[in-house]
From TrEMBL:
Domain HTH lacI-type: start-end pairs: 2-56
Keyword set, alphabetical order: DNA-binding, Transcription, Transcription regulation
Entry-linked Gene3D superfamilies: 3.40.50.2300, lambda repressor-like DNA-binding domains
InterPro entries registered for this protein in UniProt: HTH_LacI, LacI/GalR-like_sensor, Lambda_DNA-bd_dom_sf, Peripla_BP_I
This protein's name: LacI family transcriptional regulator
Pfam families: LacI, Peripla_BP_3
SMART domains the UniProt entry points to: HTH_LACI
PROSITE patterns tied to this protein: HTH_LACI_2
MF annotations from Gene Ontology: DNA-binding transcription factor activity; transcription cis-regulatory region binding
Length: 335
């Protein structure tokens, strides 16, 4: 890799002069600037963006920190956020937590040395804010914006852009009850996921609004599982026990797919014998058979709000600490 020293030697100037030419903020004679630029072109020098951002205290990369990049909703979010950031001249960096808080803490501790403009937290996990908040505030004091784009951290002083997970679950549960699909079961991560808990809260609110008791046997907390296999196992076990229910709301589309497969494996017709609703609105759910009803999340709206956040920060405008994006029920064959 060509260094600043090599450029300085070729241009017969000091490395500090090369740095001044690259920064463009300190006056340099036209003749000297021309020699430096010619040396840069001849040697094919490319500045180290991370090192440069550390020197000027202004990074051009934003890190999207996800709980599990293999889950479809995070991949969709990454695509939309990258497009939005590109319009602002910013780059996207991905960091996958793999469902581990210790990885989040270690990343945050390193963030100031990475030359970042901001950190987008997109983790659903229940976080120990007593441990993490001091680290996050230290990162913010270094000029790095921290924005939550999954769960509401506004109560801890961090701006948050979130979907209306509670409202989406209320709408889905109410639809099932209104169409005579009760009793309704719920499957998702509750104990370990702030988002899963919000969706469970919406399910409970809808039942209570109808004067219905919450049946613990129909609440399946699968905190050790995440995808279709966990949904399949939860549904298969419930059916094997002979539990009585006619619908299930799953906290993700992947879990819903597993539930549909398990019900079909037992010879049940969907939606005739069992209605299923997912959460996420991933592109493939319309191609499942039967096509899946889902609470659709608008990753594009989240990304646009992220862009507005960074634009406001550049202009010095003030934004609210919390913004909620609606989650909409999309009716298809499964419910």
């Amino acid at each position: 890799m060509v260094s600043v020293v090599a450029v300085a030697t070729r241009a017969k100037v000091s490395p500090a002069t090369v740095s001044r030419v690259l920064a463009g903020r300190v006056p340099v004679s036209a003749e000297t600037r021309a020699r430096v630029l010619e040396a840069i072109e001849q040697l094919g020098y490319r500045p180290n963006e991370v090192a440069r951002s550390l020197r000027v205290g202004r990074g051009r990369s934003v890190a999207l920190v996800t709980g599990d990049i293999e889950q479809g909703i995070y991949a969709t979010l990454a695509k939309h956020v990258q497009g939005e950031l590109e319009t602002l001249g910013l780059d996207l960096v991905l960091f996958n937590l793999g469902h581990r808080q210790d990885r989040l803490r270690h990343f945050l501790e390193r963030a100031p040395s990475l030359g970042l403009r901001g950190v987008l937290l997109s983790s659903p996990h229940v976080m120990d804010m007593e441990e993490l908040a001091p680290v996050m505030k230290s990162v913010a004091k270094n000029g790095i914006e921290i924005l939550s784009v999954s769960q509401d951290l506004s109560g801890h002083g961090f701006p948050s852009i979130i979907h209306d997970d509670v409202g989406g679950a209320v709408t889905a549960t109410t639809h099932l009850l209104n169409t005579g699909r009760g009793p309704v079961a719920f499957v998702g991560r509750i104990a370990t996921s702030a988002i899963g808990r919000a969706r469970y809260d919406g399910y409970c609110q809808a039942l209570k609004a109808r004067g219905l008791e919450i049946d613990p046997a129909l609440v399946w907390d699968i905190s050790q599982g995440y995808r279709a296999d966990a949904g399949h196992q939860a549904m298969a076990e419930a059916l094997a026990k002979g539990l009585r229910f006619r619908a299930v709301i799953a906290a993700s589309d992947e879990l819903a797919l597993g539930c549909m497969a398990a019900a079909t494996d037992r010879g049940l017709a969907i939606p005739g014998d069992m209605a299923v609703v997912g959460f996420g609105g991933l592109a493939w759910v319309g191609f499942a058979r039967p096509a899946m009803t889902t609470v659709a999340l608008d990753a594009g709206a989240i990304a646009r709000a992220v862009g507005e956040f960074f634009k406001a920060r550049e202009s010095g405008a003030k934004l609210g600490k919390r913004r909620v994006i609606p989650a909409n029920l999309v009716l298809r064959q499964s419910a």
